[in-house]
Amino acid sequence: MYIGGQKDLQILDTYTAESLGLPGIVLMENAGTAVAETLLEHFEDVEARILILSGAGNNGGDGFVIARKLYERGMNVELCLLVDENKVKGDALINLTVYRNRELPFFQLTTENLSELQAKVNCATIIVDAMLGTGAHGIIREPYRSVIQMVNQSTAFVLSVDIPSGLQADDGRIEELAVKADETITFVMPKKGFFLHNGPDYIGNWKVVDISVPLSLVEKLNMDLPKCITISDVFAQMPKRPQNGHKGTFGHGLVIGGSKQYVGAPLYSAKAAFQTGIGLITLAVPESNYELSAIQVPEVLFLPLKSEEGHFTVTALDEIDLSSYKAIAFGPGMGRFTGAEKLVQSLFQRLNGQPIIVDADGLTILRNQMHLVRNYEGSVIITPHPGEMARLLNTTVKEVEENRIEVAQQFAREFNVYVLLKGHRSIIANPNGKTWINPLGHDALGKGGSGDVLTGVILSLLCQGATPEEAVVCASYLHAKTAEVKANELSHYGVTPNNVIDGIPQILNKMF
Questions:
Q1: Of 147, 215, 307, 426, most Cβ neighbours within 10 A?
Q2: How many helices (H) and strands (E) does the chain have?
Q3: Phi first, then psi: what are they for 352, rounded to 5°?
Q4: In a domain, 230, yes or no
Q5: pLDDT band at 42; cut points 50, 70, 90
Q6: How many structural domains are present in the chain?
Q7: Three-class SS of residue 312?
């Protein structure tokens, strides 16, 4: 599923109308019909009081169609036009004229009757927001400002058409206020703003409906658009497990990490890898951590390495043969210590081209040695949170958060690395420029150890034969989905990394 911004949708709409011969009035009819049908699926009660708030543009035109379609199905619906009829033009005017000619329920907002609209909002069961659409920018002006405030204070179910009014389609920003929808029915594809900045807090549940704009145009017109991870993508990209498979079939992974302060981090990675199907896993930990670690995960192989003051020594990796490991994770719980840069140099000298995941303190250790990544013959995956990404770029967290997609894409291209920029809606960027956005994310993951779990899932999928892109896409989605399910079961407050680890097989069982 592609994700687009305002200009992307304009290009597709224009090409559909001018080159394919499907006029805008047909697209508007299709859009309004699709929203009306969705509403009817949700609300079968003909006594529901539906108030449709329409502006002057094409979004308002969609609202005119929705009102007509719902009225034809016997629903209790009233259309409220928020601007003077003379301001309605083009396809929207055609649909308003049809609606008015049929003498259907209609309310024209003026400066004198704002209180009447307030009464209608108070009485509504469902409010349809067809006010501004994707083309609106800047500060919300009257009367929209007052109406949006009314909507947000109401107890009605709020459904936004294409995008909540006031939310920017390209980046999810709002200027002071926007409609806070319970559901958004969007056309052709989800908008970038759904996943950035304020977007996730304002769109509610969302659904894409087809209005006859062919998605094949994205490739035909060479449009470089991000993709939204869907459960279908995960099903297609997850490594398949042959019935006659054995532990060798499902790969042997290595986690290098841990320190006196962070004993548990690599253990989370190892346990998550097992729960996701890896055949064998070895934990390389400081020898000072070995006994405490080994009693907690007996199914794991251990490789105690030289340590000093609770950390690896600079030469800890010098005698290790890495050729037997299909993939490697470096960094969970490693901490920061003098000489760590030489340790990572030693690691890259001994790798045999297998994929490597660098996470947590491994990223900090690597920040001044990115030439090791750029020149590595194998695939490198990094999984920074915004703070770690900021350190890698020598910039601020604010700068990273303001430009999440662009930051991930640029870094991936520059250093030939797969970037999973973590966050409420994680961004995945490939070295070739392809980008994915995870539509899932949960506050239950806002705890220490969650990132270590994600690293273990990625490692497991790599060892089972997934490509780096497949591993990161599937792991990101599974991680977030599991947290969501566990939060519904245990509360948003009570989910631990171990709960997420234990929940992974449940999600996999439902999928496969």
A1: 426
A2: 20, 19
A3: -115, 30
A4: no
A5: confident
A6: 2
A7: strand
pTM over the 0.90 mark:
yes
Q: How far apart are CA 353 and CA 322, in angstroms?
A: 10
CATH of the domain at 11: 3.40.50.10260
Residue 292 pLDDT greater than 90, yes or no: yes
Tell me whether residue 94 is in a domain.
yes
- Give the ranges where 282-356 is alpha helix by DSSP (H): 290-294, 340-350
Q: Where are the alpha helices (H) located in 104-143, listed in sequence order?
A: 114-123
For residue 230, the SS3 value is coil
442 lies in the same domain as 312? yes
Q: What is the rounded distance in angstroms from the CA atom of residue 193 to the CA atom of residue 173? A: 7
182 and 83 part of one domain: yes
Q: Is 220 in the same domain as 249?
A: no
Q: Can you tell me the mean pLDDT for 317-342?
A: 94
Average pLDDT over residues 75-80: 97
Give residue-wise pLDDT tens across range 168-204: 999 999 998 999 999 999 999 999 999 999 999 999 9
Confidence check: pLDDT of 46 > 80: no
Cα–Cα distance for residue pair 290/301, rounded to 1 Å: 11
- Of 175, 235, 225, 174, the closest CA to residue 200 belongs to 174
Residue ranges making up the domain that contains 208: 6-225
- Nearest CA to 105 out of 165, 49, 60 is that of 49
Residue identified by tokens 């490789």 is 303
CA separation for the pair 148, 46 (Å, rounded): 26
* Sequence-distant (≥ 6) Cβ neighbours of residue 478 within 8 angstroms: 234, 276, 457, 504, 507, 508
